[in-house]
Amino acid sequence: MKFRYQRWMLRASLLYLLVGITLGLLMYLGQGMAGLGWTYRLYTTHVHLILVGAVMQVIMAVALWMFPRRKEPPYWTPESQGLTLFGIFNLGVVLRSLAEPWSLVSPSLYWIGVLGVSLEILGFFYFAYLILQRIRAPGSSRRS
Q: Is residue 48 part of a domain?
């Protein structure tokens, strides 16, 4: 099914945006409630979920959907490659988001966070590889 992975990426980005905003609310409430003092640890995760999980993933999904087609078959990014990108990038976002708030407490969680960041970077480079195949001058019959 064409464009399935783009829809999954957009849905995941909306989920990350919802979770990120909810964490922001929790952090704000934590400033005035005694039992929520620990929420200061969620700041980086809050920002990360919104900027990387939501915004970056929307950019990738829309770019893979709207950039010009390839000149050679397959004209679109194959679904297997799109799903690979989705899996690598989202596994990285989830691992980092779960591990980062508590990484100073537990060395094993620190390394899980490092794995998450590494997967995000790998996912970004894979996205760059996929999208560079589609960047060309307007009206160009060959890739430069």
A: yes
In this structure, how many other beta carbons lie within 10 angstroms of the beta carbon of residue 114? 14
Contact status, residue 134 vs residue 74, Cβ threshold 8 Å: no
Task: Report the domain count for the chain.
Answer: 1
**What 8-state DSSP symbol labels residue 105?**
T
In a domain, 39, yes or no: yes
Give the residue numbers spanning the domain of 13: 4-132
pTM for the full predicted model: 0.86
**Which percentage of the chain shows pLDDT scores above 90?**
63
* Residue from 12, 117, 91 nearest 55 by CA: 12
Helix (H, G, I), strand (E, B) or coil at 4: helix
Which residue reads 């596994």 in tokens? 91
Q: Is 143 part of a structural domain of the chain?
A: no
